[in-house]
Amino acid sequence: VLSNDANAQRLSDSLRRMRGAAMKLGQMLSIQDESIAPPALTNALEQVRKGAEAMPTHQMMQQLNDQWGDQDEWKDRIDLEERPFAAASIGQVHRATLLTSSDQKKKVAVKVQYPGVANSIESDLSNLSMLVKASGLSPPGLFLDNVIRVGREELKVECDYRREAVNHRRFQQLISSDPGLVKDRFVVPDVIEEFSTDRILVTEYVRGGTIDKVIDLDQDERNRIGKAIMRLTMLELFVWRFMQTDPNWGNFLYDVRTRTTYLIDFGAARDYDEDFVRGYLNIVKANADQDEKALFDESIRMGFLTGEENSMMLEAHKLSGYCLGEPFQSYEPYNFKTSRITSRISEHGAVFLKHRLTPPPEEVYTLHRKLAGAYNLCIKIGAIISCRDL
User: Fold this and answer.
1) Cα radius of gyration (the chain)
2) What distance in Å separates the CA atoms of residue 204 and residue 108, rounded to the nearest whole number?
3) Which of 135, 163, 246, 351 has the highest count of CB atoms within 10 angstroms of its CB?
């Protein structure tokens, strides 16, 4: 069992050396609250979030030539920095300058997918499954096979950068069309179509640090950002039914000079079925109103529960749900930092893992990851905001 630092570190090292699926799912594990995972494991997996090892220069150049043609065909059109400035689960990002742009010296970000990632999803997932099972991290209530299945589908679409470019432009249109988000200075940078391919995505380069760094700003500004993040999350799920489901704080870049928040990385964006959204809204409302009957009725209808659960599981489902709906209970400002809301939700995790009879609807894997990310961001920046009106 992974209960000591040495074993946990070995798993972390293995994940960081892998490309694609294992790296991505390692990041998903690393966002779990310490009250569920052993502290040694949580600390080791935190290292996974710092990104994969950069690919060798010759490998990166081969990928560029495969996608853009021979170097002689593109070196006079774009000046690419050889060293990446960011790494993610399935690719790395380089700064570059467009040499043919009418806007002289236009700065761009070039995301280059690791070679072979799309073809290694199955093998990486098999390796990850064996690692997790061997480490004792797969109790029955985790339903690991379902997690692997959902992860497989998610990663397949994330490997298609042309699809991500479509998602990117779709979000750009939605956000730029919302007066509230425009007022709050939320911006999606442009896609550079000329250089974007199946395995390379080029976008306008924007300045800014990860949004969690705003903790040093005044309370009003932190509240404004937190409220806008929560409103955006509600719009994505309940109005647009189209959500960017990766809660990584690095996907929200804040420019302190202009107080602009830039949104990036839409590979994990997905649509939600209208019936699912309607049912989930009913659950959120039941939680906010602490309506036990409505919560259980809708939870059984949607497949969160079978109706055969024991009293321990039913109580954990109810209390974790009430906690999830807590920010929406009243119109009074909710103090995310002092609430410990995500930690309190996670306190019921052990009961879920032991007594849950059925896996949740597959949409929930991505949805709850995003909601936890929004809550954790509001906790990190110390937002004190009213959410009921959202």
Assistant:
1) 21
2) 5
3) 246
For residues 378 and 326, the answer to whether their CB atoms sit within 8 Å is no
The mean pLDDT of the chain is 87
Instruction: Identify whether 246 is a catalytic site residue.
Output: yes
Nearest to 384 by CA among 336, 341, 321, 351: 336
- Whether 28 and 151 have beta carbons less than 8 Å apart is answered as yes
Report whether 92 contacts 20 (CB < 8 A). no
> By CB neighbour count within 10 A (0-12 exposed, 13-18 middle, 19+ buried), where does 94 fall?
buried
**pLDDT (tens digit, 9 = 90+) per residue, 39-53?**
555 555 556 655 556
Residue type, 162: R
> Quick one: which of 124, 15, 114 has its CA closest to 56?
114
Which residues neighbour 375 within 8 Å (Cβ) at sequence distance 6 or greater?
Answer: 327, 336, 341, 342
For residues 377 and 231, what is the distance between their CA atoms, to the nearest angstrom? Answer: 13
pTM of the model: 0.88
Residue 386 CB contacts under 8 Å (≥ 6 apart), including other chains: 227, 331, 332, 333, 334
With 0-12 CB in 10 A as exposed, 13-18 as middle and 19+ as buried, what is 183? exposed
Give the residues across from 260 on adjacent strands.
Answer: 255
Is the pLDDT at 32 greater than 50, yes or no? Answer: no
Longest distance between any two alpha carbons in the chain, whole Å:
69
pLDDT in tens, 242-267: 999 988 888 999 999 999 999 999 99
What one-character-per-residue DSSP string does 93-110 give? EEEEEESS-SSTTEEEEE
The helix, strand and coil proportions of the chain, stated in percent and rounded to the nearest 5, come to 55, 15, 30
- Give, as one character, the DSSP assignment of residue 334: E
Look at the block and give the residue holding tokens 């630092």.
Answer: 5
Quote the CA–CA distance of 246 and 219 in Å, as a whole number: 26
- As beta bridge partners, residue 243 has 270
Q: How far is CA 263 from CA 49, 147, 221, 374, in A?
A: 19, 27, 18, 14
pLDDT score, position 250: 85
User: Which one of the listed residues 66, 72, 103, 246 is annotated catalytic?
Assistant: 246
Q: How far apart are CA 26 and CA 104, in angstroms?
A: 41
How many angstroms separate the CA atoms of 125 and 46, rounded?
Answer: 20
